[in-house]
Amino acid sequence: MSDRPPEGPKADYGPDEANPAPIPRPPSKEELDRISEDQSLITDEWSGEPEQEGGKA
């Protein structure tokens, strides 16, 4: 026999009683433009404290 973990909790309702999750609407052109602009501000550059003399923190 295989050692299987116990199964998780079961739903207390049948498939006819389950409510489907709402599907979100896709973003509008204006929303996409705003998101793209906001994402363009994200960089990998460190903007914290300046580097210490000798290269060590």
Search tags:
57 residues; mainly alpha; 21% helix; 0% strand; flat
Strand content: under 5%
The main sheet comes to: none
Roughly how many Å apart are the termini? 57 Å
The residue-averaged pLDDT reads 78
Instruction: Please count the helical segments.
Output: 1
Order of helices and strands: H
SSE topology:
Elements: H1 29-40
In short:
The chain is built from 1 helix and no strands.
How would you describe this structure to a colleague?
By secondary structure, the chain is mainly α. Helices cover 21% and strands 0% of the residues. The chain contains 1 helix and no strands. The chain has one helix spanning 29-40. The longest helix is centred in the middle third of the chain and has 12 residues, at 29-40. The relative contact order is 0.07.
